[in-house]
Amino acid sequence: MSIPSPQYAGLSDDVYKDRVVGRRAPGQEEIVVVEGQRYAVLEHVNNKSTGYQGTIYRREGSGEIVVAHRGTEGVAKDILTDATMVTSRTNPQAADALALTKHALDYAEIAGQRTGHAPEVTVTGHSLGGALAQISAHHYDLKGETFNSYGAASLSYRIPEGGNSVVNHVMASDPVSAASPHFGQVRIYAKPTEMLALSASGYSNSRANFLIPDNPLMAATASLSAHKLGNFLGEHSALTDPNARPLAEKNARMIEEYRSDVNGLRTGTTIVTQGPSGLGQGVVDSIRGPLAPGEPA
């Protein structure tokens, strides 16, 4: 991937804009400028029945194609929407996201027939959109970058945890990205205010911190602002802050403990809400094992 992370973040933000639905005729594409780079809008989808929205962009110059999957607007609504993935282990917008990603691959194939070289197709998204990006990256064996995404590896699509296909940028105290394992690598960024919130909830880097009770719910509630995409945009973006990743590394112990606690809460909630049938399906999926990228269920 040659597209810089700040541009992926910018496209994950731009996809929240309402646009005319449909494919653009050649020469009629809107132009958006992200971090100084021009992108042409090739297609926009808005399925009101599922709530899915997504946009296909073409990077001017290189011709690379990016599919941006949209999350939901507003932190509270975003978290409520992501909560449905916790209870059902499915994403009702996945089919729409896969369909739009297939359109992007079709655009690339047509361009390749014309030029002799098909441009790379990558995916991006924030929160719910990031989960859809992980799902589509796994389904079609694509690369991509996400921001505070809900991890897709806990969903029922037999998506493996880890790998290097997707880079998942997360804020240290963001409860959504902490709730589920990710397809791809996870890069953690931290702000001093996040470390204060975790400390106030009982977390520390001390090996003796088991003596102090942790309160993941208190920490998560105090950290809702960490979920905002704005943490990765503009001049104060964590992506370009030279202190954000070192601060996360310095506090890796407390961050890992908090994120593990949040993941544990999610696991317990999933088991309780799905009941015996859901647990049985989880056992079957575990026995069958994950699918390799590009080998969808």
Explain how this protein is built:
This protein has 297 residues and is of the alpha/beta class. It has a single domain (5-284), classed as Rossmann fold. Helices cover 41% and strands 20% of the residues. It contains nine helices and nine strands. It has helices spanning 5-14, 75-88, 94-115, 128-140, 175-178, 192-200, 216-222, 244-250, 252-288; strands at 22-23, 31-34, 37-47, 52-59, 65-69, 121-126, 143-147, 162-171, 183-189. Strands 1, 2, 3, 4, 5, 6, 7, 8 and 9 form a nine-stranded mixed β-sheet that branches. Helix 5 (175-178) links the parallel strand 8 (162-171) and strand 9. Helix 3 packs across helix 4 (128-140) and helix 7 (216-222) crosses helix 9. It is globular and about 65 Å long. The protein starts with a helix and ends in a 9-residue tail after the last helix.
What's the number of extended β-strand segments? Answer: 9
Radius of gyration, whole Å? 19 Å
Judged by helices, strands and strand pairing, the structural class is alpha/beta
CATH level 1 name: Alpha Beta
Sketch the major β-sheet.
9 strands, mixed
The helix content is 40-55%
SSE order, one letter for each helix or strand: HEEEEEHHEHEEHEHHHH
Strand content: 15-25%
Number of domains: 1
Number of helices: 9
In round numbers, the mean pLDDT is 87
The coarse overall form would be globular
CATH topology (level 3) name: Rossmann fold
CATH architecture: 3-Layer(aba) Sandwich
The poorly predicted ranges are 270-287
Roughly how many Å apart are the termini?
A: 26 Å
